[in-house]
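User: For documentation purposes, I need each entry recorded in a consistent format: the amino acid sequence on its own, followed directly by the corresponding structure tokens. There are two entries in this batch. Please keep commentary to a minimum and don't merge the entries.

Assistant: Recorded as requested. Entry 1:
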Amino acid sequence: MSISSINYSSSVLGAQIRNINQQLTDLSTQLATGKLSQNYSGMGTNEGFAIAGRSQLSNIAAYTDTITNVNVNINLANTALQSLTTIRNTVQTGSASTAQDLNVNGQTVVQNTAASQFGSMVGVLNTQSGNRYLFSGTAFNTQSVANAGDIINGTTTQAGFKTVMAERQAADLGANGMGRLVQTQPTPSSVRVSEDVAGSPFGMKIAAVSSTLTGATVTGPSGSPVSFSVDLNGLNPNDGDKLSVQFTLPDGTTGQVDLTASTATPTPIGSFAIDATTPGNTATNLNTALNTAITKLANTSLVAASAITAGDNFFNTASSAIGAPVNNQAAPPAPISGATALSGASPSNSISPGFGAGDTITVNGTTLTFVNSGATGNQLNVGDSIQTLMRKIDQITGTSKPSTVHGGSITINTDDAASLNITTSNSGALNALGFGSTPVTATQPPLRVGSSPASSATTLVNGSANTVKWYTGNDGPGSPRSTAMARVDDSVTVQYGAQANEDAIRQQLQAIAVFGTFSTSPTSQYAGGQVSALSLRVTQSLTKQPGQQHIEDIQTDLAMAQNTMKDAGTRQTQAKAQLQSIIDQAESASPDQVASELLSLQNALQASYQVTSKLAQLSLVKFL
């Protein structure tokens, strides 16, 4: 009989020792790395929470990077906008001053400053963040604004603003320098003034006439083209009697001529002489004084208003459909207004011919139907006002700029010129609104004087083909803020886009361009009046008006986006700490616990080795 030797490696005790050794190795690794395991299988049942937490941490890291990048863009945009505010204040302060000393180029020092500030403003609007133009909307790879020199002076193939303004001034003044007015003396005792062409967008429009001239007969303003006449009937007015004529200028402002009958010698400025012996001479004196006053108004206030309007024609590139000026039914000389009714029958203050029950207007495929009363939805009452119709049209087109009626002319604004299409079953009524043909479509400014010579032109035409496009970024529909969006949290996005053609920016750029580009003859008797009238209008344009967008409004929008990101960042910082705690609990090894387990295992291993050593020395003799 024989007894087999004890095989250490295959014994239960040997396996236990190998297991203890493996545990010692694992604990040593945990102590060195601080982790429970080097692979997921060794992490335990809570590793699923750790994996999910790590994924969320990755998302937070991505959001953090996005917030950082968006904040850089917003900070740069805000710096640019603050620069624009500084430029505005500088030019506004200068334009409000009374200094009118002209240099050899026919400009004041303040105007030269404005020209320089225009170049600075263009540079600011072309600010980039990396390769992104901040004021180009979705077209962020495209320069926001054309070069300042091209905008003002044009290129070899396209006219700049200076040309557009000169054309407009020539068209508004007319060949005789009287603002497109024609003055005659039909009889020895009368004077007549008329607009040269009915419906022309140029020159001064006769708005109202009032008189206290004793014995005189005043007729009008009325007719087409509009005119008025004053007949002294062979009589002399009394000393101090007055004639007042009010005109509407191209920019919507008014100018007035006041003439007083006078016996004083010499005849005071703003008066006409009464000839006590020959009343016919008094009529001649009135004719001469009226001609002088109209010419002065045309060459001062009208010239300034023309420059402002030229700026709007060139810079205000919002899509629109513009109807010809028309009068209402009740008072032919009075232009239509928002309150004018759409019915030709009742009330009397209405267009003629008007819309009747059953007539329709279709806007971009949506039909508006006229009913006698009780209109709902896409219906209009025949007695509703023009303003009600425009609101309905704006609701359909979704325009960001409401349509308007001014000076008898309706302007239908739209954010998308290509889509505007208005038709009607009653073309006569639509024509009475100033739209002579259907379908009504939107033109895309810049607008240019329609024919040559400009002094006799009667239309404005789309100048897109031969005029510099000052804004070169995205100009599609929708809010400029929505042209740049970023997700900064799982359910939070911010909008931080901007466009150089936003009203607040465009109006400032336009006003400064007008002021810095306009020039006059230093020796002209009207030079001071022109600069004074223009300065007043530029100051007004650069003054913040209620209801208009301000540059500060854009800054507020961007600040709100930053606040939203700040709040998201705060939440993410808190979530990051909590998630890291979950991961640490699932994956981290406690140094104290590991050290304690190591010591315990080392003691166990030592005891096992001692037992093993004794067993290894065991023999049959010793066993017996």
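Entry 2:
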Amino acid sequence: MFDLGVCMSTSSIAPRIPGAEPDTGRLEGASRLRVYTVLAVIVLYTEMAPLQYIMIAPALQKISASFPGVGANLSWVIIVLGLIGAAATPLLGKMSDIWGKKRLFVISGLFFVAGCLIDAVTDNWTWFLIGRGLQAFAISTQIISYGLIRDLLPRKYVPIGLGLTGAGLGFSGILGPVIGGLLVDHYDWRAMFWFLALFVIVLTPIVMLVVPESKLRVKDRFDPIGALLLAAGVLFTLLYLDKGQDWGWGRPSAWAWLVAGLVLLAGFFIIEQRVRRPIMDMKLLLHPRVSMVLLIALFGVFILAVQSYALGYMTQTPSADQLKDVVAQGVVEQAHQVAGVNIPTSIVHVVLDPGYSYGSGFTLLQYALHLGIWSGAVSLIFGPLGGYLARRVGPRTPTLIALAVMAAVGVGYAVAIPSYSWPLFLILSVGFGIGFGFFYAALPNLIVEAVPDEQQGISVGMLGVTLNIGTAIGLAVVTALLNNAPLTARIDVMGHTTVQTIPQVFTDRGYILGFWFVTATTLIALVLAVFMRHGRTPATGGADSSQDSHCAAPADNPAQ
């Protein structure tokens, strides 16, 4: 029986008889074709979230040419998704409980389209980030889909359906990198945003026609002040982590950003415990069945955020020898343009300090064919398998497997960089696909098994906040490590020597430290999963949680 050990407020929830199944519009008695069609359309619509990440993160090396003054802060193209997602996801999760999950599902997609259209036409860095912020609403579609699947699918299909949502239908994992590569290599990086907008525009009327609305409603209000405090607190903290190297980690002016961020986050927790309608139920949040899952999500997602970003960037970077040729050619062209002098490249000697080992000089399509699609294909297999394991033995098991595999892969990346070769990275990325599939199959099942129907939207919203914040923190820390490992070139022309910092290329040390950092956080998540008592019994699709009363007595069984 479900038991949070706390008294849930009943003022905002329609009373029902303990043990009764709420009417959510579940497709009981529907044909398998009907059930699978609804599930397929829901999952396909949610693929806008992983699709934009899988396409955009590896393309940052190409996008950087349009914003040359941004440097390593180009990672904010990804970080801003975490910031806006952290603020928007709990609001939309609660709004979906109040106004309808399908309605907010579609609205989130329309915000995503608006963001894509902005990025497809703008040359301004600020507007580009605004567009990316609107695209963060795609993350909410995944979170809201968990509630739709739980409300609409027959119980026996829910665990596997949640696993399939985490892995997707293969469109993002397999076709996404190829489509992105073809568009960027043959047109321009902006073509990706036109494609993403068209993808959602075509799917939106299909969702409206095929997917029924959940009948479950909660009479409640949401707290925009809480969302503002949370977003501002995370933003200021991440600015310190990301810019601390430039500002000086110990300078009072830099510390002010960190202190302000922590104060705002503390204010968020204080206010949320006092307001009548908090954005998050703090008692629910702090209960071990929920808090342990959120901590695992927070620390476990670091490596997921960094892996695609780092691999796409490293493999598309020219090799050290190729880079030397590029720098030498640039010196020759500059001499001709500035002084009108033609000099042979043979007299330009370039020495990289301290040098780097990675770099294949891939195009985006080559990256997709050599690495990207294989990791996606593996996650496509292991996502549903993770949902099957959750149904058979409990979601804790695929969680343990996911974290153990990802930690091992993280060590592999860190050790392999000095002896870089793309086939070795291919092997590691295939292993990473196993962890990715299991991780995103297990987490929603853990949350669904932990909370009652009426808390579904806000609870998966909490999961979305945690994943977004973890993504943003992981990328901010790795960006700081890369900023602290710049690559310089010593250029000698007939005895005249100059030293130049090479933009957008970093030494091995930055990436190695980055992978050791995310491996350490993954191990923390693994230790938490080992001690987690929740998720050790087969997943029921939330059937147990629907049988509780709203004011449960404290659990005597420590396993709960």
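Summary note for entry 2:
The longest strand covers residues 496-506.
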